[in-house]
């Protein structure tokens, strides 16, 4: 294993200079810093994590709380987690992944043990039980998600309210007047999960403003659940010509069931989805969609957190603007005889 002394010898500087370059505690000339960094790279030197933590009173670890629930689309959550991990490494931090549904207990464990220097929380509910603990600690934190009250918090998220409005506007511009929302599993709404509630609020508000009829039906996803949901939709709203889907596991079953019923997409029925780009482009009908900017959310969250750790961050809400991409699944509403 390469030692700090060997790096110093290779760079032609003292061991203390190498230490100052690594810690940033003293100003080092640009030329010397670059020479040390080049030696570190060539020799493959890795500072001892324990010694580094003792020297700086930091663990150089960020805790990422990402409850993996059966009613959530895990690939999106993991895509965000990967973005968090890769961005954190560029800033010299490692990730401690907490995947259980412990809620406040996990926050207490992290803040009380010194396991991590800061926290990123995902799967944020409107009245999240973890938030009072975050507000009561000096440890920096960032939410990927938006609670009802953002006072004293830093949050990064897609603007889901604007996302819902954008989907409705697109269908309205195409002449659709009866729109059904195929939503997440019922448990997601029962927990008042922020992204689902905010999307629904945007959908309903804009539909009301445009004079459209909107029906919302949660769905567990999968073929059987989608079949039962779709049968109920056309029983209650037989004139439905537009669907907004915010449930990745319901996308393909919906398209298959519409085909079986002889309803062509988009000639008879238009479908717009809020989903990852990959889901939209690989569906049996390429979906008009608002993509989930998972990588951007993860990257922004880490950058906000690192700014706080460096002493120049502030509490703020960063909402990413939605972008709708038109593909083959949406078209003019059919003319009724």
From TrEMBL:
Residues 2-56 form the HTH lacI-type domain. Pfam families: LacI, Peripla_BP_3. GO terms for molecular function: DNA binding. Keywords: DNA-binding, Transcription, Transcription regulation. This is LacI family DNA-binding transcriptional regulator. Residues 3-32 form the HTH cro/C1-type domain. The keyword Transcription applies.
